[in-house]
Automatic annotation (TrEMBL):
Primary enzyme class: transferase
Record Pfam families: Porphobil_deam, Porphobil_deamC
EC number: 2.5.1.61
Function: Tetrapolymerization of the monopyrrole PBG into the hydroxymethylbilane pre-uroporphyrinogen in several discrete steps.
Protein name listed in UniProt: Porphobilinogen deaminase
Record's subunit section: Monomer.
SUPFAM superfamilies documented for this protein: Periplasmic binding protein-like II, Porphobilinogen deaminase (hydroxymethylbilane synthase), C-terminal domain
Organism of this sequence: Rhodoplanes tepidamans
Domain Porphobilinogen deaminase C-terminal: 233-301
Pathway the protein contributes to: Porphyrin-containing compound metabolism; protoporphyrin-IX biosynthesis; coproporphyrinogen-III from 5-aminolevulinate: step 2/4
Length: 312
């Protein structure tokens, strides 16, 4: 086929992990369909981030979430790409000035999956079993439910983590069911946690699309594929996170659902060792998503006190 020399319709920046590529291709497909352009007209540029390069240390230690987005955001500022596709869970609470989270893809299942060869559920794991996770939230919540279980830090992409369970390096791990489904690995989930007992991370299962705030052309292009329900839920969850001002060292969980013009939000903070947790919820108008999230976050911040955040 002859290569067209015309510039692309729009340019996507993404990480190169299998999950990131799924997200970028899904965005590409939806944009092509919405605007009646061929897939090839939507360029995908893979950008390596510090988070991809540093694999041997826990994320919280090396500087947290921004590690997976910084280089891609720089490409936006440099006008090398027009939009960046992220797992919204990995997006910084406060985006750099000049960038906005403009659109979301429809949210996938938000639940955490339990992956284990020795037991069907966390409750059935024998005392002293080892759970490997890179997530402070998952580790803290496992400790809260099962103080007798040992939590160790493991990193790497989804495949690496699954292999560590397969090889017996750890007895079990927890992964976002959304990621497993998107990678065609849903059958790797031994069971799923009920969100009533295991609250997901803010943004879990939602793909967020970021662009330059002043780039009205790209914003218009993205409006055609935006899932408003997901974006409203994310607005509440991210306002909750922002109000808590949590560093990456504070285990925080938050989840909002939108039904018609109503929004429900649950939020939780928990000590890393699982010893203390504070939970709250809000119900209100979906139009007040940001205020509801902010209010819930402020409440938990006050209840936890400075001590809570200082010690994680
Ligand atoms: N931190 C890595 C990450 N970022 C998003 C997902 C899963 C997909 C999603 O939540 O959208 C994962 C893997 C995991 O937590 O198992």
């Amino acid at each position: 086929m002859a290569q067209s020399s015309s510039p692309p319709f729009v340019r996507i920046g993404t990480r190169g992990s299998p999950l990131a590529l799924w997200q970028a291709h899904e965005t590409q497909k939806r944009l092509a369909a919405a605007h009646g352009v061929p897939l090839e007209a939507i360029a995908i540029t893979i950008i390596k981030t510090s988070g991809d390069i540093i694999q041997d240390r826990p994320l919280a230690e090396v500087g947290g979430k921004g590690l997976f987005t910084k280089e891609i955001e720089q490409a936006l500022f440099d006008n090398a790409v027009d939009l960046a596709v992220h797992s919204s869970k990995d997006m910084e609470t406060n985006l750099p000035d000049g960038l906005v989270l403009t659109a979301c893809l429809p949210r996938e299942d938000v639940r955490d999956a339990f992956i284990c060869k020795r037991a069907t559920t966390l409750a059935e794991l024998p005392a002293g079993a080892v759970v490997g996770t890179a997530s402070l939230r998952r580790g803290a919540m496992v400790k809260r439910l099962r103080p007798d279980i040992e939590v160790v830090s493991i990193r790497g992409n989804v495949d690496t983590r699954l292999r560590k369970v397969e090889s017996g390096e750890v007895d079990a791990t927890l992964l976002a069911y959304a990621g497993l489904k998107r990678l065609g690995l849903a059958d790797k989930a031994t069971s799923l946690f009920d969100i009533a007992v295991f609250l997901p991370a803010v943004g879990q299962g939602a793909v967020g699309i970021e662009c330059r705030a002043d780039d009205t052309r790209t914003r218009d292009i993205l409006a055609a594929i935006d899932d408003g329900v997901t974006r409203t839920a994310l607005t509440a969850e991210r306002a909750f996170l922002r109000a808590l001002d949590g560093s990456c060292r504070t285990p925080i969980a938050g989840h909002a659902t939108v039904s018609g013009d109503r929004l429900s939000l649950r939020g939780l903070i928990v000590k890393t060792d699982g010893s203390v947790a504070h939970e709250t919820s809000r119900e209100g108008a979906a139009a007040d998503a940001a205020a509801l999230g902010d209010d819930a976050g402020r409440e938990l911040k006050a209840r936890g006190g400075p001590d809570f955040f200082a010690h994680g």
